[in-house]
Amino acid sequence: MAFYIYRIFSNFLSVFIIIFFAWRFLNSKENKNSIIDKFTINQKDRPKGKLIWINAVSIGEAKSGMIIADELIKKNPNINILFSTSTLSSFKLISKLNKRLILIYSPIDISFVVKRFIDHWKPDLSIFLESEIWPNMINYLKKNKINLTIINGRISNKSFKIWKKISFFSQKIFKSIDICLVQDSFSQHRFKNLGTKNVQLIGNLKFLSKKPEVNQKDFFSLKKQLMGKRIITMFSTHENEEKYLIYCLKQLKKKYKNIFFIIIPRHLHRAEKIKYSLKKHNVKFALRSINKSSIKEKEFYIVDSFGELPLFFKLSEITIVGGSFTNKGGHNPIETSHFKCALIFGPFMQNFSNIEKTILKKNAGFKVKNSKQLSDKITLLLSNRKKKNEVINNFKKVCKNESKKARLIFNNLQKFL
User: Fold this and answer.
1) Is 272 among the residues known to form the active site?
2) Mean pLDDT, range 200-223, rounded to an integer
């Protein structure tokens, strides 16, 4: 009955959803191909043989999904991978990799759209990343006896409370998950509490990520321009997080005349607000999209370009996790371990709580509560090379150890194949 009500409700909302996507298209948040795929208007041909559907919505999940896809193809060269993602940026990222897979946009969770999608592709196994819980998709997979695996499973406390309030409905959804491999103990408890039977704490799949490639031409060009600078990068920042760096700049300039901050916003449209904030405080800055040279005399560099995180990690002595100074739960710090930069994060790292605990326990990074503490830790790392190298090496060891645990994910997947 609960699934029936949701199905009718989602069909009723389909008119409004179509209008919403038309608005997104007009505002360049969707394109022709994404609309066609998301509403399953004109689907690609299904190849013969086994087909594994990997559903990874955003960039972070898409990167994790590619780790799974690569490993599955390596162990099972004859299988086909259907890889779906939702955002233009994640689709662009995956398409650049030129992998052997069928890349599409994820279908909208409207009953008739999902039914058409599953009837056409008939996957032998479906793999959803992290917190993608879509009732119509799960219901139709169950009806067609298609196994559903959640990998890198995560449920925030906020989402858990919402699902719990509608337990008459959520229990049916979460019971339909065949196996759930979670990344932290909190999510393990929450999935079990919501009705998932087979929940295993494996660890974070992101620990298996390979060292990302860096554009060497850009790297040497920037390195030459910034020779002698003490470079600090704050990545995936959210609203008002730049104010922490502005405070640090004013404090650190008293001792270090060569401080250079790089700020990489989570959403590129925020670059304008960051510019306004820096102008207000008389901070000298350059914009990546405009000033690719002549930046040495600046104090801040706003990166309003896509896919360049590794480049700036490689240039930096210290990296600061965005989304951890405002209550966004933090962002993935693991990728920084491939480079020689010490890690600092703020008080809000609940999306990576297990990683946070391990980092602090192993002295592999620093947690700070405010601007003053952030400035103090930066000063410590800039003035004490031995301490900085110790923190960097400890984080590399943490990631290496955790990657061994994460490999167990593939043992579980092979059972289905």
Assistant:
1) no
2) 89
